Amino acid sequence: MKVPDDLKFTKNDEWIRVDGEIGTIGITDYAQDSLSDIVFIEFLVDKGDTINKGEACASVESVKAAADVYMPASGEIIEINESLTDTPDLINSDPFGEAWMVKVKLSNPSEIDELLDPNAYKTMEHEH
Amino acid sequence: MTEPTIFELSSSGRKGFEFPKSDVPKAELPKNLLRENLPIPELSEMDVIRHFTKISQLNYGVDIGFYPLGSCTMKYNPKINEETCRLPGFLYLHPLQPIATVQGALGLMYELQEWLAEISGMSAVSLQPAAGAHGELTGGLIIHAYHQARNDKKRTKMLIPDSAHGTNPASSAMSGMHIVQIPSDHRGNVDLNVLKAEADDTLAGLMLTNPNTLGLFDEHLKEIIEIVHNAGGLVYGDGANLNALLGISRPGDFGTDILHFNLHKTFSTPHGGGGPGSGPVGVAKHLVDFLPNPIVTKIEEGTNDNPPLYGFLKPAKTIGRVKSFHGHFGVIVRAFTYIMMNGDEGLREISEHAVLNANYIQARIRDSYTVPYDRICMHEFVAEGRWQDAPEVHALDVAKRLMDYGFHPPTNYFPLIVHEALMIEPTETENKETLDAFSDALIKIAKEAHENPEILKSAPHSTPVGRLDEVRAARDMILTCTFPEVSE
């Protein structure tokens, strides 16, 4: 499984890329592989919503299971990747790139320090 | 062989029925209510009969073969159930008939309420909920009403173990709770440390499936219930797995506050497409007043010369009606019949055999499949459909291949806490020959997974249609019927 070096991770298999005060959020390669073919995504937030760490921002469905995507950090939603609604298969093919889900303006950047770094995430992934 | 859809068989102008000439004057309908085009398929009676008979022959059910669908308790529905629910006195009842004319039906409902209370150790039972998840919603509403009545309004947190039934979170959310998931420990029990940490003064309750969806009886049941009660919460028991406990142990005796029954699982009434289901709810003494309205009650005891008089009771703090009229009465008659035919000793034997059968299959396949929580199971168990030395094979391939051996696949990919889960519940009705044939097939498939994985990847080979492209079906939906544009 791919685990890019420039990201932080949750135990629940979400990733976040932090650029200044903006965080970009998606689900990991491991998550998409466990879910198998993803056929549906529904966003549970709107642009402008303020949402806390741990709250669900989207729900994804595969032929096998449905799973919520939880916020790795709190903040205001500034962008939603609406194109995934028509092409949910991008989540399978490019989970760390084109299949980013939401962008958030971080309200508490110190939350990022509590997340897993790539090595810690890799170790956890092996325990799955 | 495939059968076209009824829309594809349609031929313009073909008819199955001619209406007689109208003997009343024709009334003109307002133009905006008329449609130019109504795409109802046009066929003769014989076309329709052949179509549906052919489809019925493609079906697979418990009456055709073994159906080990975990956590669904797909047990055989004895045909006497179908006789009794069609007795004219039940079949031609109307729910609005005067109460004096439906005393037999009320008597049956009253007895079933009493029996379910006795079987479960609960104090009183409502037969209204339409199925299991509806029972859960009813339970959630009772929990909500109980805390509100005590003016304890901050209690909105519902704890749900990750080994619980999949409907629990949705039912809780519908009853206004917010949900916190409790993980399992390495033995497949509820993680007590996480439970303790979450048991605070916002706790509304815990939804506990016991035995859980791993088919395991929680080893700390008493402690779990104490933790929840000490924090002021209520314990909801998901009774969908009651088939493991009949006549052996009673959820009410453990301290369960609310429990639903699945008459369509534990008490043999038809299930799935053959439904409808029925999900009666039982409560402990302190919740009797919150039950849905109305409850059947005995107004007057009978004497040697007169039968008892039955009527309805409105519980004092009722959450109200949860279903039109009195629930799914035909299902209630079937469950009554099943309990009466088996008696108390028979019910106990049902659970003993259900547990024995599951353990038998588990023991037979243990060397071929990983059983992640490997201990004595209850009425079902969960194995993994994956092997490190056959990485391309998944649980889905095992399930599909089982169809080639003539068996309905078990539940797969649930519970989510087991990778590539295969959840097997044989039920008590199967004999040793069937259990052996199924175990042999599973063992053979495990061998095929290593020697000839392609035969699994491309299975099933012997069914009317082969492997369905589920991804394409979910992504590119094509409807064969079309609906006309609705004009304003």
Report a brief summary of the structure.
In chain A, the strands form two sheets. Chain A has a six-stranded antiparallel sheet with strand order 1-2-3-9-8-5. In chain A, strands 4-6-7 form a three-stranded antiparallel sheet.
Description:
The complex is a heterodimer of chains A (128) and B (488). Chain A is of the alpha+beta class and 128 residues long. Chain A has one domain: OB fold (Dihydrolipoamide Acetyltransferase, E2P). Chain A contains 4 helices and 9 strands. Chain A has helices spanning 29-35, 83-86, 90-93, 118-127, and strands at residues 8-9, 14-19, 22-27, 38-43, 50-51, 56-62, 66-70, 75-80, 102-106. The longest helix of chain A is centred in the C-terminal third of the chain and has 10 residues, at 118-127. With 488 residues, chain B is an alpha/beta fold. Chain B has 15 helices and 12 strands. In chain B, helix 5 (103-120) runs parallel beside helix 11, helix 6 (132-149) crosses helix 7 and helix 11 (329-365) packs across helix 13. The longest helix of chain B is centred in the last third of the chain and has 37 residues, at 329-365. The A-B interface holds A 37, 39-40, 63-65, 88-89, 128 and B 396, 413, 416, 419, 470-471, 474-475.
